[in-house]
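Reminder: ligand-aware prediction takes two inputs, not one.
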Amino acid sequence: MHDALHRIRQNLAEIRERIAAAAARSGRPPSAVTLVGVTKYVSAEVTRLVAEAGCPDLGESRPQQLWEKAETLAGGAVRWHLIGHLQRNKARRTVPWVHLVHSADSARLLEALDEAAAERPDPLPVLLEVNISGDAAKYGFTSGELPGVLAELPRLANLRVRGLMGMGGLESSTDQTRAEFASLRELRDRLQGACPPGVSLDELSMGMSGDYEMAIEEGATLVRVGSALVTGVEG
Ligand SMILES: *Cc1c(COP(=O)(O)O)cnc(C)c1O
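Here is what comes back for the chain with pyridoxal-5'-phosphate:
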């Protein structure tokens, strides 16, 4: 475990350095970008080490894994991010644990999240997932659906929509991925003016291990990095 912690610290230091350099290239301080350490590949024990190494924002793509790890690590300083698809019938069990849902991908899920969030002391922060690559296998709203979704938000009083999330296409080249990230930022800029009072799309969650520096150059405020964080670590 000592070796694992040492390795995670090294990985984390390198990632933070790259984040800072990419942020500087986009004219922003390193603090403008939050690193979400994606722990879906590792055990609860290693997940705890990631937090201990200095990455308190942790992401899981499967709700069940998030519940289990959140329970195991309860009492620590972890802020949990749900980054993968959520079925509506799992909203109630998920909402109490999460700091930010990145993957709100349908109007019906927003309804379910709003209902579940009624029991929270504070509104639930969420991002609207956008299918930026047009991959049929990807979840998310189309850009054309978003104005209608934004118009409905005043009714969903227990949610606080904070921005957009997107993923580069599985088949996309580097240039295409960069264009997809840029288009998400442009979409956000356009929609910013069409938001109901009290809604501001300040956050852009985009970029993973292979493309987070490019995502930051294109305006990401949250990057979701998994494999680069736990490379060389067992379990
Ligand atoms: C797994 C996952 C990541 C992290 O991917 P890596 O390439 O391992 O960094 C980021 N975002 C989502 C939605 C994921 O499912």
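Residues 165 and 219 are 12 Å apart (CA to CA). The mean pLDDT is 96. We will return to this case in the review session.
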